[in-house]
Amino acid sequence: MMKTESNLNGDRGEPLLRVTGLCQQFVQRRAWSRAKFTVEAFQDVDLTLHAGKTLALVGESGAGKSSLARCVALLEPPSAGKIELEGRDLLALGREALFPLRRQIQMIFQDATSALNPALTAGEIIEEPLAIQGMGTKAERRERALLLMEQVGLDPKGEKKRPFEFSGGQRQRLAIARGLALEPRVLILDEVLSNLDPMNQSMILRLLADLQRAHGLAYLHVSHELRLVAEFADEVAVMCEGRIVEQQGVQELFESPKHSYTRALLATVQSVDSILLERSA
Question: Quick one: pLDDT at residue 236?
Fold first, then answer.
């Protein structure tokens, strides 16, 4: 059986992931001109995320949430700042030293249809990151793929199916299985529920909660649906125009928001009291 590192990690008080002073700028050129200008996707972002907990990142479209998520997932380089995993600054590492650590932070995207390679079967999609990291034999990688399909609620007999043969909810389960293949410690969920109907949203939320309890996963959950945040998150960071304006526990944020932008967001949400009462019971 292929050996993988355990990702169970007790709460030691210190955050598993710490983001400090993170910035991202893009230099663009004006149409019909050589003049350049700078666009800031986000600036001076500080975040902390603990093992086994969920931090929701909320804000309106264009606030910089997905750009921030991609930087934290090491898919795009930030302009400045630190991303520390258990105190180790990942951005200060060279390519060779960083390569084995990339498995610790994985990202699941909003649109599973475009995120999954249509030319690969379900089994191959899950096995691919294992092969890239050089983990296990071909037989061991297949065994892990079948186990993960079962864990996320997919029939392992469907390993030869291609993504288009699955329903929307099943494709998102397949994306989650791929995200879990390397046994990450942090999963970044970028609007993973927004393309699903309410029934599938509820089922995927339960699946994510079960996986978190079983493996001690930390989630950075990018979402604009505050009702789902109230149900799922432990803490909430509110992002406005590229800045984090508030980070609180979910109960405290919904009951006593400190920033005017947060209060404006919450004013659009109805009937979250019952969710918060159920959580605190």
Answer: 96
Q: In whole angstroms, what is the distance from residue 39 CA to residue 25 CA?
A: 6
Asked, for residue 149, whether it belongs to a domain, the answer is: yes
Tell me the β-bridge partners of 45.
22
Q: What pLDDT, on the 0 to 100 scale, is given for residue 35?
A: 72
What is the span of the domain harbouring residue 80?
A: 17-280
Tokens of 41: 């996707």
Counting the structural domains of the chain, the total is 1
Cβ contact 115:191 at 8 Å: no
Q: Which amino acid is at 4?
A: T
Detail the DSSP E strand segments found in 30-183: 36-49, 54-58, 80-85, 88-89, 105-108
Tell me which amino acid residue 34 is. Answer: R
> Is 4 part of a structural domain of the chain?
no
| pLDDT, position 141 | 97
Q: Which stretches of 120-233 are DSSP H helices?
A: 122-132, 138-151, 168-180, 198-215, 226-232
DSSP 74: T
CATH assignment of the domain containing 102: 3.40.50.300
Tokens of 17: 């992931």
